[in-house]
Structure formats: structure tokens, C-alpha cells
Amino acid sequence: MPLALALVVMVSSGVTAFSLVSVKDEIQIGEAAQKEVRAKTPELTDKAVTSYIRSLGRRLVAHAEGPEYPYSFSVANYRDINAFALPGGPVWVNRGAIQAAQNEAQLAGVMGHEIAHVANRHSAEQLTKGMGAQLGLGVLGALLGGDRSLGAQAARLGAQIGASAGMMKFSRDHEREADEKGMTYMSRAGYDVRGMAEFMEILREQQGRDPSSVERFFASHPAPAERITRLEREAARLKQGGRRDSPDFQSVKRRLARLPPAKPMPKG
Ligand SMILES: [Zn+2]
Q1: Ligand 1: distance of its center to the CA of 40 in Å?
Q2: For residue 5, how far is its CA from the centre of ligand 1 (angstroms)?
């Protein structure tokens, strides 16, 4: 069986979690997606806030496995609670998520989860599945042939991903893995891993109070109830204790509270 055909068979039967998208391709797709997201997202540029988010992100990334992706951390000036990751490194956190968190460990939980999607190449697996299922042999052929550079296709795929960013849906297995790995990074970075489950509790309360502000989050993540039970069980298995908060986090919260209020995310 020719190599291309063998791979297609493996993809369509879903035997293994592997990817036809190279790390280089993934980064290229992510760059195109990031360009698209940047163009349509009101980015919070307040230096104190952005450098805080970057350093928290870097602290977690230092404990992540996988390829050395060019991670970046940006804050969307939206009031909704949401966060998402693009292929190959870019991570976005909504201002609403920072403001909803009560301590740094909870925010580290949100960011650890997104970093885990990147580090474990979930987008590459999704893209591989999508290519096998929808795009067919043409794209696979192009991917497997020549120098394996996606070129124009990377730009197109990236733009598509960027256009629907924040609504990207990973599989349940990917979500579970992102929770587990995210908690591991938190633990290694010295945080109290219970922060992740606590943040889910905040989301659940918020859903009762103001459903529209968490609509986007729940469109792309599993229901909080089952997630909380699982997160608590897993947290009990990891090292207990750890850092819960920092003066920097609280100062960022105070700073955000003084800025003009953020807008809701556009619907649709
Ligand atoms: Zn997720």
C-alpha cells in the first residue's frame, strides 16, 4: 500500500492519535490564524496586565512537554469569560476570565488548560482528522508530497481557524487531557491544583447569574458539572498545597477594575 493511502486508512479508522501536520506546518497555520484573530479582536494593551499574563503563561509553559512552540499570550478586551488556544502557540485570555478569577491559581488553571491543548498538539490531530474526513486525498497528497510545506493552504486553514476562534471545539478526550496536563503544569509550577476546579465553580455560578457571559465558553468546553467532579478527583491525586495567589495578580485585578468596562463578545 502506498504510504499516503496507508495513512489515510489509519486516519479514517481513527486508530491512533497521530498527526500528518508537522510542527512547522502547525506553527504556520497558527500564525495565519493569529493574524485573523488580531484583526477582529479588541486587544487589551495595558502593559502591566499584558506583561503579567505573559509571565504567568511562561511560568506554566516552562513545565509543559512537547515541541518548543513559539507561545504567545494575549488579552482580549471582552467581558465574557473565555480563553482559547490557536495551533502552534498563540493563547488568548479574555479580560472577563481574569476578572472572574479570585486568585492566581484559578487563572493558572485556565491558562494551563489552553497551554496543554497546544503542547499536546490537539489542533494538529483535529486538522488531521478534518483532512481525512472532509478534505480528502487532494490535501493529504499535497501535504505528503514535496517539501511538506503547506504554503497557501496553511494561510487558508489558518484564516478559517482564526475566523471561528473562541468557538473551536476539541474532542472530549482532548478536553480531558488538557485538564489533566494543565493541572500537571500547575502543580510543577508550584500552584494549588484545586484552582482549576474552583474556576469551573465560578463559571457554573456565573451561568446562573448571567448566562450570556459564559455562552461562548460552554459552546467549546464540556459541561462544568461533570468536569468539576473529575477535576476534584484528579486534584486529590496530585501534590497538595501550593501557591494560591500573588500580590501581582491582585494588583492586576485592581487595575482592570479601574479601566473602562470591557464590551461583550459579538454574537454569531
Ligand atoms: Zn479546552
Answers
A1: 22
A2: 31
109-142 confidence digits (pLDDT tens): 999 999 999 999 998 888 877 765 554 445 555 5
Mean pLDDT within 208-221: 84
Distance from Cα 146 to the centre of ligand 1, integer Å: 33
Please check whether residue 150 is in contact with residue 128, taking contact to mean a CB–CB distance below 8 angstroms: no
252 within domain boundaries: no
What pLDDT shows up at residue 268? 61
**In which domain, by residue range, is 167 found?**
20-242
Is the CB of residue 154 less than 8 Å from the CB of residue 78?
Answer: no
Q: How far apart are CA 172 and CA 185, in angstroms?
A: 20
Please pick, among 25, 31, 179, 198, the residue that the annotation labels catalytic.
Answer: 179
Residue whose C-alpha is closest to residue 193's, from 110, 121, 70:
110
For the chain, how many structural domains are there in total?
1
List 36, 104, 114, 177, catalytic entry? 114
Phi, psi of 37 (to 5 degrees): -65, -45
| Percent over 90 (pLDDT), the chain | 60
Whether 257 is covered by a domain: the verdict is: no
Q: Is 210 a residue of the active site?
A: no
4 pLDDT exceeds 90?
no
Q: What share of the chain is helix, strand, coil (3-state, %, to 5)?
A: 65, 5, 30
Q: At how many degrees (to 10) do helices 122-130 and 23-40 cross?
A: 90
Query: Is-catalytic flag, 114?
Result: yes
Q: Is residue 255 in a domain?
A: no
> Distance from the CA of 2 to the center of ligand 1, in angstroms?
35
How far does residue 73's CA lie from ligand 1's centre (Å)?
16
Residue pLDDT, tens place only, 71-86: 999 999 999 999 999 9
